[in-house]
Amino acid sequence: AKKAGRNTLRFFDPLMQETINMRVDLERELKKAIEQKQFELYYQVQMNSAGQPSGAEALIRWRHPERGIISPIQFIPVAEETGLITQIGEWVLNQACLQLQAWQLDQASKDFSLAINVSAKQFLQPDFANQVKNSIRSFHIDNTKLKLELTESMLIDNIEYVIHTMNTLGEIGIQFSLDDFGTGYSSLQYLKMLPLSQLKIDQSFVRDLATDNSNKTIVLTIITMAHSLGLNVIAEGVETDEQLQLLNAHGCGNYQGYYFSEPLSINEFNHQYMQFKNN
Ligand code: C2E
Ligand code: CA
Ligand code: CA
Ligand code: CA
Predict the structure, then answer these.
(1) Which of 20, 113, 167, 194 is the most exposed place for a label (fewest CB within 10 A)?
(2) Ligand 3 (ion): which residues have CB within 5 A?
(3) Does ligand 1 come within 6 angstroms of the Cβ of 72?
(4) Residue of 236, 244, 247, 255 to mutate, ligand 1, most atoms within 8 A of C-beta
(5) Do 85 and 116 meet the contact criterion of CB atoms below 8 Å apart?
(6) CA 218 – CA 213 distance, rounded (Å)
(7) For the chain, give me the number of helices (H) and strands (E)?
(8) Ligand 1: which atom is nearest the Cα of residue 8?
(9) Average pLDDT by stretches of 10, the chain with 279 residues
């Protein structure tokens, strides 16, 4: 189960099976997975421009007893449709806070930030802000190291409520990163209104950075715009030195991708990046 980032198994391929039966099965299996705690977080390192690890993004995996590791691409959409995402998301939040607590006790990792992905349905739950506050409180972590990754599409329809919740959490130091930036519909108007600290450039733009001139222009424009709005920028999906050099030359500042590391199990991650490697 080592290279889970890339070589995950794909059982629930909608093109190959009867979609409806599959959905029912998957929903039933997901409920069981929640009860039996079959989920696991993997951690992908984030690097700063000095080449130092500054934190990680937590990415969920489903360790199925018979089927092995299942990618979130296979089950998060169904979890969102069925509403099970709120329970899964709450587990992710608590697990992430538990991990931050461990890192904050270690000299080498005490300043690490940890980003988690938050689905629209989860974020729009009336008690979401309280959930976050409760988790932070029960694990005694430094609030400012928890980062929530939101996507553009979830913001637009509920902009006022979203801003309100973001402000509630922003006041206690929680950070927000706008995920998959460039793939949605955010206007500059929205960007200005949202209390964000970071834009995350989607990997689709990073992929052909060195070969596709329009993608290069898009990336450079995002970086310039973000900085002029006082936001920091992270590029996801950095796979080559060439991409890194280009991004670095244009002041991107933060990087994540296979060039540095795939997402790792907690033991592997701690072994790489923590001083005390005994978890
Ligand atoms: P995302 O948030 O855009 O995460 C980035 C995805 O790109 C991850 O896939 C990551 O493993 C992969 N990746 C990282 N570096 C590279 C690279 O250099 N090249 C390429 N080609 N890919 C790279 P993963 O882990 O399969 O996650 C897929 C999506 O599932 C995530 O996309 C996110 O939308 C969702 N997801 C993952 N964990 C959670 C979670 O805890 N909660 C929710 N709601 N969604 C999650
Ligand atoms: Ca993400
Ligand atoms: Ca992405
Ligand atoms: Ca995404």
Answers:
(1) 20
(2) 180, 202
(3) yes
(4) 236
(5) no
(6) 9
(7) 12, 9
(8) 26
(9) 51 61 84 97 97 97 93 95 96 98 94 97 96 96 97 84 96 96 78 93 93 91 93 97 95 97 97 74
Length in residues, the chain: 279
CB atoms within 10 A of CB 146: 24
Q: Are 6 and 25 in contact (CB under 8 A)?
A: no
Kindly report the protein residue whose alpha carbon is nearest to atom 25 of ligand 1.
59
**Does 55 contact ligand 1 (Cβ within 6 A)?**
no
For 25, the token pair is: 């099965």
State residue 70's pLDDT score. Answer: 93
Q: Comparing C-alpha atoms, which of 185, 188, 168, 184 is closest to residue 176?
A: 168
For residue 41, the ligand 1 atom closest to its alpha carbon is: 41
Query: Does any ligand 1 atom lie closer than 6 A to the CB of residue 76?
Result: yes
202: CB partners within 8 A, 6+ apart: 179, 180, 181, 182, 183, 236, 237
Q: For the residues of 121-167, what is the DSSP string, one character each? A: HHHTSTTHHHHHHHHHHHHT--GGGEEEEEEHHHHHTTHHHHHHHHH
Sign of CA dihedral 182, 62, 124, 101: negative
pTM across the whole model: 0.92
Joined tokens for residue 59 = 């990415």
Q: Is the CB of 77 under 6 A from ligand 1?
A: no
Q: What separation in Å is there between the alpha carbon of 276 and the centre of ligand 3?
A: 31
The pLDDT, as a whole number, for residue 100 is 97
The DSSP call for residue 61 is: E
